[in-house]
Amino acid sequence: MEDATLVRARDRGDELGAPAVSTATGALLQVVAGALHARAVVEIGTGSGVASLWLLRGMAPDGVLTTIDADVAHHRAAKAAFAEEGVEPQRTRTIARPAADVLPRLADTAYDLVVVTAEPHTLAAYVDAAVRLLRPGGVLALVDALQAGRVVDPAWRDHDTTAVRRVLAALREDERLAPAMVPVGDGVLLAVRRADA
Ligand SMILES: C[S@@+](CC[C@H](N)C(=O)[O-])C[C@H]1O[C@@H](n2cnc3c(N)ncnc32)[C@H](O)[C@@H]1O
């Protein structure tokens, strides 16, 4: 169940063509952020800020969310949601650039949680950079990782589905990570960065 602030943010996302994470996915992200007592989180794909709000609600009260989206109009919508929520300005850092440009400029091993909600065909370009940002024990979350079940159905061979399959296979092989697929929403791949990696 979402409150009025989340519902309004979701409506703005629909108007902008930036569909928000499902309510169940948002709740999962809040739990992960809370369990990590996250103080530094990166989100790729701000959209209208629905997942951002869930994350901020779970994070430590002084935690900072760095949220990246290539589209300035989406950032405007998210900022409206943050204002409505009463989020203190120092708790969010919004960056209006493509993720592949921004991630190399962020500090290595400095983040508790990296959440990716951008479109699947863009994933491969920055997943490796995203993993590099995680501290040992930090978590990577790939939202919509099952693509409505297409990823596990071999009949689907389109570009997006194949790209996501390749990314998931690479994450399974990555010795720095311990991954698990959570069947919430359209699938959320969670992967913890091993303490010895
Ligand atoms: C599905 S929407 C995100 C929904 C949002 N997380 C929410 O819950 O409200 C995907 C967003 O990713 C952004 N995006 C797509 N590719 C990107 C990229 N390569 N770098 C940065 N942002 C990107 C789009 O502009 C869009 O706003």
From TrEMBL:
Signal peptide: none annotated. GO terms for molecular function: O-methyltransferase activity; S-adenosylmethionine-dependent methyltransferase activity. Keywords: Methyltransferase, S-adenosyl-L-methionine, Transferase. Its EC number is 2.1.1.-. It is an enzyme of class 2 (transferase). Pfam families: Methyltransf_3. GO terms for biological process: methylation. PROSITE patterns: SAM_OMT_I. This is Putative O-methyltransferase. The lineage of its organism: Bacteria, Bacillati, Actinomycetota, Actinomycetes, Micrococcales.
